[in-house]
Amino acid sequence: MKDLMKSLELSLAQSPVSVQVQLPDGKQLGSRNADVRLGFKDRLSMVALAMGEIGNVGAAIVEGRVAIEGNMRQLMAAAAALLKLDPTSGTGNHWWQRVVQRARSMAAHTVAHNARNIQFHYDLSDDFYALWLDPRRVYSCAYYRTPDLALAQAQEAKLDHICRKLNLQKGERFLDIGAGWGGLLLWAAENYGVDATGITLSKNQYAHVQQLIEDKGLAGRVRMKLVDYRELKTDRPFDKIASVGMFEHVGRAQMAGYFRTVHDLLRPGGLLMNHGITAGGVDNAQLGAGMGDFIERYIFPGGELLHVSTVQHDMAVGGLEMVDTENLRPHYAKTLWAWSDALEAQLGEASRILNAQYGEDKGGKALRAYRLYLAGCALGFERGWIALHQMLAARPDGDLHSGTLPGAQSVYPFTRDYIYAPRPPAGDAGTR
Length: 432
Known about the structure:
One of its GO terms (biological process) is lipid biosynthetic process. It comes from Diaphorobacter ruginosibacter. Keywords: Lipid metabolism, Methyltransferase, S-adenosyl-L-methionine, Transferase. It holds the Pfam family CMAS. Belongs to the CFA/CMAS family. The protein is an alpha/beta fold and 432 residues long. The chain has 2 domains: 2-82, SCP2 sterol-binding domain (Nonspecific Lipid-transfer Protein, Chain A); 99-431, Vaccinia Virus protein VP39 (Rossmann fold, 3-Layer(aba) Sandwich). Helix content is 46%, strand content 16%. The chain contains 17 helices and 11 strands. The protein has helices spanning 2-14, 43-50, 54-62, 72-82, 95-108, 111-122, 126-132, 151-165, 183-192, 203-215, 255-265, 291-298, 308-317, 329-344, 347-358, 360-383, 417-420, and strands at 19-22, 28-30, 36-40, 66-69, 173-177, 195-200, 222-226, 238-244, 266-279, 321-327, 386-394. Helix 3 runs antiparallel to helix 16 and helix 8 (151-165) packs across helix 9. The longest helix is centred in the last third of the chain and has 24 residues, at 360-383.
């Protein structure tokens, strides 16, 4: 234990922000006038800190065994300094461990399990999410077309970036898998004139979007369904499909099947935009240092991240051709800090909302978990432990000779110029 404490004192001295640690016996380590203060109530949490298991320290904070003082940006800077190992380093990559992981992934991603997992996270409280998301409640990586954009502007830029990449045209049948609170679904319908269908497993999100559709008078060409992607029935395939922030919930063992299902929902020649979080490491099944376990327990049960190379392999197995990939990792770091800062500015109201719904014990734990989750993920994207990829794929139609792009086998243009070309005036957007 003495060696661990010496190691901890050395790490504290090397931290870019000053840190004070109070041990269970009242002894204090680190700076007197510290930016960040951690008060430990048990030895087990203290050992986790000394060993660099910052995810386990996070769990102790959520459970009330460690008290914190200081802002989230300073706390994350200190956490990074206390790490002992690269959290993306591949551990447990033996063949038998991969077999066990696959079996667990299969069991964890049945239709019933996925519905419970999604509702655990997204049905927490609409009022809580509204405190720190933009007015459209877009709960995915924004696109900072210019660095000075406000969050709401960057989210609208992201919605438009996706619509442009899909080359949406008036009257096309568009499917949004995991449509959230309807941001992309409604943006595509209102600005690109598509016939739009969204699906979700969140009861709260379903009810919210249904009300928006009614309020906007879009019931004739926009619809929301409460259904798993594997159980969606349609009389004819869609021209374009988007899946934003959803495939992280699919599971490694189900990924090729997911892309096969999307392939079957997409017309020959059509385009898919798959936007989601990917692993920073090639071999790690989850983030190390206890961070993956923290997210599984408190935030996203059943969530699994794959390296972009694995995703593209499974995409090809599913019969889809990758035609364009863009890494938006730094955009997500900026997005998450915007969310974190917005939540930190509303802690009193966030506490009131969650305590009223769940009681002080459960509500307090949820708030502490989300404070750590948002800031911790911002740190993870900054450091490259995780990434965010937009993967545009096509379902080849087998037609080598017809059309203006012979040999293309899809509607994807020969160059990316169409993504960045000037848009028509706003009044014409719905008639393009």
